[in-house]
Amino acid sequence: CAVLGTLTLGVGLTVLQAPEFLSFQKGDWPLSAEKIPDLVALTMGFSVEEDLSWPGLQAGPLFQRPRANVLVVVRGVDSLDLPQSVASYPLENPVAFTLDSVAEMVHSTFAEYTPVVLQLAPSEERLYMLGKANAVFEDLPVTLQQIRARLSQDGSVLTSFPLNSLSRNAEADLLFLSEVQVLHDITALLQRHRHLAKDNSPDLYSLELSGLEELSRVYGKDSPQYRDATSILASVLQKFGEDMYRLYGNSAAVEVVTVKTFEAPLTRKSRSILESKQISNPGSPYNLAYKYNFEYAVIFNIVLWMMIVLVLAVIVIAYNLWNMDPGYDSIIYRMTNQKIRMD
Fold first, then answer.
1. In which domain, by residue range, is 173 found?
2. Is 308 found in the same domain as 209?
3. What is the pLDDT of residues 184-206, one digit of tens each?
């Protein structure tokens, strides 16, 4: 459907990385924030309830889809300097959204495999994940105590860039640094467990970062802490996108959404860090039908056209058999006719 709403400046969708078979067109076509889950679903080859009539994404090959989609939402910033990107688009109607529907599609379609569905969002637990591959990411820092310990260990991001005005002792600074550390640890874990990026199931990463928003609230947007953090995050996201794209064999789509604040707050239920959502379809006491499956249209077309081809094949074969001359077209009748003449 057509995107609606009032254009809000200072927010946008940037495609950092995309495979060659995903055709993102460069232009200033606005996209509503509530349509981002549909955009992610389409890039991963899933069907959506309503057509996305947005010219920014063109139809690609039917049998080629990314092996992963990574969406990073950065709150509290008007824009980020990401020069090495595929395309960028303005975002209108910046309402809160989730990729829960896409995660459900991944789980239901690839239930027999081990898809990675990793979701990072501001909540009481700071981090929650879904999927069978949870155990690989169980070492990610969650609490402030774990974050402080992780930042003091080997491989910490504190040694990768100068902190300048940021402090590892301030809680707002620590929240921002923890999110940067999680981005670093995700790529490090995937490098150690490369089989997760090479299986037959697509992976989904939905990462929502609120560190800049907290820094803006505590120090203000004109503070050196906020400016340093914005510069650090831009370079970190650029490298994060390149690493994820490379780890998935140049077959990963990486998008970044920057929004100063969402128009409507999004409430999330608290989940366990290693919670694995069970996909079930319990029976109804009222004997109701199953919920509509969005893959129904695809399956219906496959069965329909296969039946049409088989019916046409039977008609052609029957027609040729009916008009066949046994004396010339059949070797059985020809051999029988010669035997009768010899007798």
1. 7-259
2. no
3. 999 999 999 898 888 888 999 99
